[in-house]
Fold:
Amino acid sequence: MIWHPEIAFSFWPGPINLAKNVFKSLLLFNIETPAIWHTNLKDEPLLDPFVGISFLSGFIIALKYFHSTKYQFLILGFFASLMPAAFSHNYLYVFKAVGAIPFVFIFSGLAIDWTLASWAKIFPFNKLAKALAAIVFAGLMTTTAIFNIEKYFWAWRGSPEVYQVFNEDLVAATQFLNGLPNESSKYYWQNDRSNIIKALETKEMKEVSLNSLPELKLSSNKNTFVFSEADKPYLAKIQEKFPGGDVGWYVSPYSKRVLFNIYTGS
Amino acid sequence: MVRKELLSVVIPGKNQAVELGKTIDDIIKHVPKLPYNVEIIYVDGHSSDGSVKIANSKKNKISRFEVFVDPPGKGGKGSAVKSGIYKSKGDFKMFMDADNSTNFNQVDKLLKYVREYDIVIGSRYTDNLNVPTKKWFPSFFRASKDVIDVLIYGHARSYTAGLKQGRVRQFISRGGNLAFTVLLGQCFTDSRCGFKIFSKKAADTIFPLVTLPGFGFDTEVLVIAKKYGFSIVEVPVDWNDEEKDSNITVKDVFKSFFEIIEIQWKLFRGYYNKKSLKDEVISRKKVYLNSWIYPVLIGLFLRLYKIGSGVSHDEGYTLWLSHFNLEDIILRTARDVHPPFYYMVVKLWTFLFGGSILAIRGLSLVVSIGTIYLVYILVQKIFNKRAAFWSSLFAAFSPLMIHSGQEARMYGLVAFLVTLGTYFLFCYVKDKNDNFLLAYLIAMILAVYTQYYAFLAIIVHWFIVLAYSSKPGIKGFIGKLSIYNFKWIIVNLIIIIFYGPWFSVVLRQFQHIKSDYWILPEWMTIETIPKSVLGFATFNSFVGNESNINFIYGFS
Structure:
């Protein structure tokens, strides 16, 4: 294999692009994420307001004490971990910022620690002040917990877009085929995502493509084909080769769109 | 008038009433011959034979004599000695057994060396003064020889006791010493002899850090002493053992072995890092307040909830790849865009827990929980417990981290390994213990074989080493190339060497992905600069477009 040295330089986007990408990556935490649903609600920031403000405060505290080695480590570590995102030019830069997340939480934790320590200095040995601080931060943490659980488990995971991202059509199609009786022959149309079906199948299924279709012979039992909505045009090819079957479809309970089509024949 | 220095004698005891009385009498008899004032502190472990009564009856014979009963719920010699040392006020602090195995008059032999050494310990297995050095192999040889001696002669040839222990007890004693030498790197002939003197500074440093309540505390004390560089000497003493065979059970032997493991683990985890007695009291009170257990349990619960639903395209790839053998996994991964370690771990994981999507996500769950814990101990090591608690709590609730803990992909594992490597590196630069550097090496080799982003962590790690060098900064690092810096360079070279077999694959993968992933050189032309500046203002010129997302999606 010949590896041209130019490739090494192709990763360098130039100072302007790098600067703006770093800036854009920084916005992930408190302002906006890309318009995709893979890891977060579209356009929403990664952090909730409490953690987001804590993160910024912790970052400022780290800057204030930058002469200390441990804070230098935090800031440098944070920016180094952002580099994959900063060098990315596609929607997936949010994935590539994942290395910076632990640093974000450390900054946030530092801010809380600093605030509580400062509070204790203002009201030393005052039990009421201590209890008040504990109640306030426990309340904020509870709010954050409810916010994040609601956001992740219901708002994000419950959205039709996320079901789509997580291959709702193929998961449902595989479950459908797995649920058919053993004596029934099962087929699915091959596409670039068929590995999902292969991975989830618990019963024998056959992959069908334009190349394999001419050689395909149906069994004497019931035969069931599934096609994702994108592969629907190929349904006609099957109908042409094996006429007389029934056509059906499966609708998503979340997005109400057709997930896959079913062709059954004997 | 010159003040006489005070020697504190701590005697732990339980149900040894008869021997205890004689032991105290012997001490009181010998005190006038010493150039020290002496205080006696007897700590009783809830005896039922009247030991406390006997000890109290001797109080009027010496001016400084206190009797304590160890608090309920605490047990063992270690706990009693620790309590006694806390209460003692001496310039030198010693402890001895209540059964008079070593007569108190033997203290003369030890006191000769208290100005020269921080810790002076009696030994039953040497005729000469022994200064434990870092020469491990001679110690290993001597400890092995003792075990062989016991098998042949019934006791070690170096054993100087008048009345000797039986063969079984000798075997356990010498076998234990060999285990200490091998597993803890100790070079003592008799680490568990119950006759030891400490300087005040050594006692005040070591005993707040002692954690084992039972007989294992002796070993722990010496491990902590070695960590803090206290000078130690072993002095031969006359010792009388019971001739009868021991009633030590197999359970005791195993307990002793596990205590060695526990000590090594605590050493590794930094439990023995310096803290004052006051700090310890405070940390005991707050142990439940800022504990790691809350973030870990919350994290576990949130990651288990709804872990089984949906499968992303990339997870499908993971599942599919797990059906192949290890060789095929490596070959097929080479044609993809990631290194193979995660998929190899998944393969091994499926042997244990099955190949379902739920089982494979279990791996991500475990490493995600591990990462929360690592965040805690890392922040605790660098900053403090409260900052550690909040940081790990945020990590437990983070949707992004919950997601990586529920997804059958390598991101959770690489985060775990990098955090683990960072933790080990911090331990190394602070404690200068080579074991941490070796642990770092293993963690980072696995990390770079899991995800390429791990190389960026090594850049950060270089900064840590530069900053924490004896003379910080690059000039300091190069100008004063200490053995620690040299070892660090060697470790980096080893990582590169280990990566050698995969390097040609990396080059091919980079060629494959460069047009799909990274900003291309054309972006740098003069014509694109105004557009880029405008894009900067509107935040939308460099995030790709909808048309390429499905294509790229398959490789994330």
